Amino acid sequence: MKPGIGRPFRYNTKKIFRFEEKFNNHKINPTAENLFGYQEKNQGDGFKSMRSVSVTTMSKRPLTCLHDGCKKSVAVSSLVSHFKHDHGAVPCFGVEKGKELSLLFDVLLVEHDKTFCLAMITVYESNQIDVVRSKSSQSVINTCSKLSGRVPLNTFWLMMSGSTDHRKTTSYAIYWLYSNSEDRYWCTMELSSKNDRISVSSFCSVVGLHESRTVEEVARNMNCLFVSHGSFIALLEEGDKINLRITLH
After folding, report:
1. How many beta carbons lie within 10 A of that of residue 170, not counting itself?
2. What is the Cα–Cα distance from 220 to 41, expressed in whole angstroms?
3. This prediction's pTM
4. Contact predicate 214/50, CB 8 Å
5. Nearest 5°: phi and psi at 232?
6. Residue 36: what are its φ and ψ, rounded to 5°?
7. Could you give the CA distance from residue 15 to residue 231 in angstroms, rounded to a whole number?
8. Over its length of 249 residues, how does the chain's per-residue pLDDT go in tens digits?
9. Which residue numbers delimit the DUF4729 domain (predicted)?
10. Domain boundaries defined on the chain
11. Which of 223, 208, 176, 216 is CA-nearest to residue 47?
12. In this structure, what are the phi and psi dihedrals at residue 92, rounded to the nearest 5 degrees?
């Protein structure tokens, strides 16, 4: 059975937080405006209202590598090279935009208060010449066809972070994608049990250069796949290896 939103045995991961209980007790509609105090930040294009400095300024500031306690300061333009040289064990994948990348995930990698890079993903776009509609001469078409193929769009870092809270009732892990680009990207992420009978999924924004990369902020802005402790228990009913699927849009 192909995984997706429509699978009949999808596990419900919605959890009630304390701030939601407060609104429910007072019969107040817990809208984004009521929860967080303003509207713009929660309309899916948060970087316009969250950005206090220009993207140009941000791109000149070094980043702190979050992988497995590295914490090195790395130039934005050198992040790919840093991972290739300092974190060579992190696997690299290439996938076309809109195509699904499927991985096997070992839950033993999940640790409290720790962020881990699961993979570097280079996304490509097809660069093809429409011979039928092209108004160029045949020689130009032939030349361009030789140069056409997969064009790299951007590189993304697939991150996994464990919550600082160790209590089973409130602990969680988040899966999120990071890009050192100022452009806005969207992704679909899904975790499913070994035989795909149970799954959790999320359609969310990729965390960009301008946005906070702290676990709490990524989870609060919902730029991730949020998986509670109870959800992990359900996903592991069919085995200790679960499927992780990512699609960049």
Report:
1. 13
2. 11
3. 0.69
4. no
5. -60, -40
6. -115, 0
7. 10
8. 555 544 544 544 444 444 455 555 555 555 544 544 444 444 455 444 444 444 455 556 788 898 988 989 999 989 999 999 999 999 999 999 999 999 998 888 888 889 999 999 999 987 665 555 545 566 655 666 665 567 788 999 999 999 988 888 889 999 999 998 888 999 999 999 999 999 999 999 999 988 888 889 999 999 999 999 999 999 999 888 899 999 999
9. 65-231
10. 31-127+153-248
11. 208
12. -115, 140
The amino acid occupying position 63 is L
Count of all residues that appear for the chain in the document = 249
Q: Which two tokens stand for residue 21?
A: 């209980």
Question: Which residue bears the tokens 């992420």?
Answer: 189
Distances in Å between the Cα of 180 and the Cα atoms of 5, 100, 147, 171, 200 are 29, 21, 27, 28, 27
Separation CA 71–CA 60 (nearest Å): 18
| Cα angle: 47, vertex 248, 156; to 5 degrees | 70
Q: Is 24 helix (H, G, I), strand (E, B) or coil?
A: helix
- 31-127+153-248: CATH topology is 2.60.210
